[in-house]
Every structure is written in C-alpha cells, then in structure tokens.
Automatic annotation (TrEMBL):
This is Transcriptional regulator. Keywords: DNA-binding, Transcription, Transcription regulation. Signal peptide: none annotated. It comes from the Bacteria. GO terms for molecular function: DNA-binding transcription factor activity; transcription cis-regulatory region binding. Residues 4-58 form the HTH lacI-type domain.
C-alpha cells in the first residue's frame, strides 16, 4: 500500500498543504475546528509523520519539559494535570522529570532536557548554579535565572493573613529543608514585644519536632502535615494552567508578559474554611 501523503490529507480535510502542516505541529493560529478536521482526516487515512523531521523544519519539537524537585508530593498530580490541559489544546507534548534536590541533579536534568530539544521548560525546584537557560522558561518559586519568567507567591498577602491569624501573639517559624515560604521568618523576627502562646509555623520540615505541635503548616494543596489546624494553600492545578499558558506565549513568540506573576495563597482550616471567607481573626 502506498504511503499516504500530506497532499491527500489536505484534500480529505478540504484545506491546503500548508494548513495541514501547521495543524499537525500544533500551530495556535489554526482554529480548533480546522485542527480537529485535519487530525480526523490524518487518522482516517492512516497518515504518519516524522515528528522529529517536522520539528526540525518548523524549528519546534512540539515538546516542552516540566521539571519538579520531586514527584512524590500528592499535589504534583494536580499541577501536572493543569499544565497538560493547556498543552493538549496546543497539540504540544509534555516531558516530565524530577531532580534529587541539589544543584548537581539539576544540572543533569537540564542537560537531558536540552538533549531532547524541548521547546521550553517549566521548572519547580532548585536551579543549577552557573547554568543558563537557552530555551523559553517559566520558574515556579521566588527566584528565576536571567531569561526566565517567574510565578511567585503574593508575599504581602500571605504575611497579612498570618498576622491576622496570630492576632497579636508571637510567631515561631520553623524552617525545614523543603521550605516554600522562607519570608515568613520576617514575622518571627519582628514580634519581639508580642505576648501569649506563640503561633507555631512549620514550613517544609522532613520530620516533626518532639514536644511541639504546629498551628500552621505550609504545605501545597491537597495535603495536611502534622495534624495542624491551619495550612497555607496554593492552588496547584491553577498554577499548572498559568505556567502552561505563559510558556506557550514564550514558545510561540508572544513573549512572557509580565515577566513576574504572583498567585494569591490562602490560609485554610481543617474544616474547609478559609481566610478569604473571613474565618481568620
């Protein structure tokens, strides 16, 4: 049986060859209806394309990388799902990897991603000192290397919510190796004159502190640590959607604007109420 050509797919879909080429590589300028029609015709005819050759000719591989510090936390599924939903609409594939928590591991993962010719990166974890970003990148966290777009936490909003929860009490901040909100230490340093039982905050601890129980645990959405009555919640799925959209803007030439985006955290109680609903203070 003769190999199906792009011209045959174009004829079956009622478009020209250029439109077929753009649709098959996920060009966002092509409408959803045309995308669907072209892909349906390609599947019906059994058309096979060489993805690597297509990527070389279009200067896009059609793959972006998502790098996480670890795949073990329960919230990673929601983050990955958010990113995947956005990329699927653009016909872009997702390559996922994790690092071991140190700079050497980050360098290894970065080299592997580069060797796979990813069009861009979404990075959540420690960066490799001395490394540069040669592709569009979105960094989740409080620091981004030059050339990357950053999605961080609305620091002032979180500080305000924690002050409200403390309600004049002293604040005791415990920082662990996986801390996400190190700037909360500012509150502990600024309340020297406060009195009463302290508001104990545990952030990223790898094991509990004997004889101490936290009132506030800093953990991502979907998990409770150490039976704390309050936790900081960051919406993992929404973070995934936002980072995916920003990266696609960079990859397809519209630029990362703005270069820094902040997401609003919430303090949420174990019974499901939040500060945003007026339940703190």
């Amino acid at each position: 049986m003769d190999k199906v050509t792009m011209s045959q797919v174009a004829e079956a879909a009622g478009v020209n060859k250029a439109t077929v080429s753009r649709a098959l590589r996920g060009d966002r300028r092509i409408s959803e209806a045309t995308h669907a029609r072209v892909w349906a015709a390609a599947r019906r005819l059994g058309y096979e394309r060489n993805a690597l050759a297509s990527g070389l000719s279009s200067r896009h591989s059609g793959v972006v990388g998502l790098v996480l510090a670890s795949l073990r936390p329960s919230w990673t599924g929601a983050l990955i799902s958010g990113v995947s939903r956005v990329l699927a609409r653009a016909r872009v594939d997702l390559l996922i990897s994790s690092i071991d928590g140190n700079g050497r591991g980050a360098s290894t993962v970065l080299r592997r991603m580069t060797s796979r010719r990813v069009d861009g990166l979404i990075w959540l974890g420690p960066w490799a000192d001395g490394e540069t970003v040669d592709v569009p990148a979105v960094f989740l966290g409080d620091g981004a290397p030059l050339g990357g777009c950053q999605i961080g936490t609305d620091r002032e909003e979180l500080l305000r919510q924690v002050r409200t929860l403390a309600n004049g009490r002293p604040i005791l901040y415990r920082q662990g190796p996986n801390a996400s909100f190190c700037f909360l230490e500012e509150l502990a340093a600024a309340d020297g004159a406060a009195e009463g039982a302290p508001l104990v905050i545990w952030d990223g601890l790898s094991s509990p502190i004997e004889g101490e129980r936290p009132e506030l645990a800093c953990v991502p959405q979907g998990a409770w640590d150490w039976n704390a009555p309050w936790r900081v919640e960051l919406p993992a799925a929404e973070l995934g959607v936002l980072s995916g959209r920003l990266l696609l803007n960079c990859v397809f030439g519209r630029g990362c604007r703005p270069a820094k985006v902040s997401v609003r955290p919430n303090l949420v109680s174990r019974v499901g109420t939040s500060e945003a609903e007026g339940d703190v203070g």
